[in-house]
Write a structure and sequence with these properties.
Blueprint: H1 28-35, H2 38-50, E1 58-62, H3 64-67, H4 72-75, E2 81-85, H5 91-96, H6 98-101, E3 109-113, H7 116-120, H8 125-142, E4 147-151, H9 163-178, E5 183-186, H10 213-222
Helix pairs in contact: 8-9
Length: 228
């Protein structure tokens, strides 16, 4: 028997047997860390109150790689995009705020970049994959007609030691999405590696983690035809 805390709930559920996909445990520490993004989510809501968001957008969400994507709209001319990346979020954070950063906008397409911070914080490929699947299933249940697009976890130079876990996680997510309808897996890893198989330095800022405009140009090119 296991007691567990459900994201988007303010109380522990009674103990029960777990069935189906592994339900990952969310500790009180993780809950406290998640709450640190509350101010960013409230800013989204304040912006929406002043300027109503577009109907049925292509919604980009996830970690700072989405948050820092300057001039996102210019990469997808003729498309209605909405940028809702926040903090240095991980999959648990996106799952916690899913109703407020995804579902409420009723997007026609969800574009997600997340998982890198999970792995950097010590999550295994199994755990990161389970978190992704849990988020995907929640979104698919509530937005059954929305296209779901995942941008593969990038090969950040500063996180080179996590590369095996990143590669395994990417492979598992790719196989999972290949068996689901109305989904995309955008593999940005090959275009970010040089002939030596290492990340191309000029695609990254001085921190060797966040991307330069050149990196985003490659991402935008890789997603042409994918963003609907």
């Amino acid at each position: 028997m296991t007691c567990y805390f459900i994201p988007n709930s303010l109380a522990f559920r009674p103990c029960r047997l777990l069935t189906g996909i592994t339900i990952y445990l969310i500790s009180l520490t993780t809950f406290a860390q998640t709450r640190r993004f509350e101010s960013e989510i409230q800013k989204f809501e304040q912006t929406d109150a002043k300027t109503p968001p577009p109907a049925n957008p292509v919604l980009f969400t996830g970690s700072s790689s989405i948050r820092l994507w300057d001039n996102l709209q210019t990469y997808f001319p003729g498309k209605t995009v909405l940028q809702r990346g926040f903090g240095g979020s991980n999959l648990t954070d996106v799952r916690y705020y899913v109703d407020r950063v995804i579902i409420r906008y009723q997007p026609k397409q969800v574009v997600l970049y997340a998982g890198e911070n999970d792995i950097a914080a010590g999550a295994s490929a199994d755990s990161t994959y389970d978190r992704f699947v849990d988020l995907f299933r929640y979104v698919r249940k509530r937005l059954p007609k929305a296209r779901f697009t995942f941008i593969s976890i990038k090969p950040s130079p500063s996180r080179r030691k996590f590369r095996p876990v990143v590669d395994e996680t990417n492979a598992r997510i790719r196989r999972f999405l290949a068996r689901r309808r109305n989904t995309d897996y955008v593999d940005i890893v090959p275009v970010m590696l040089g002939q030596n198989g290492q990340p191309i330095p000029e695609l990254f800022r001085a921190d060797s983690l966040h991307m330069t405009p050149k990196g985003y140009v490659l991402w935008g090119a890789a997603m042409q035809g994918v963003v609907k």
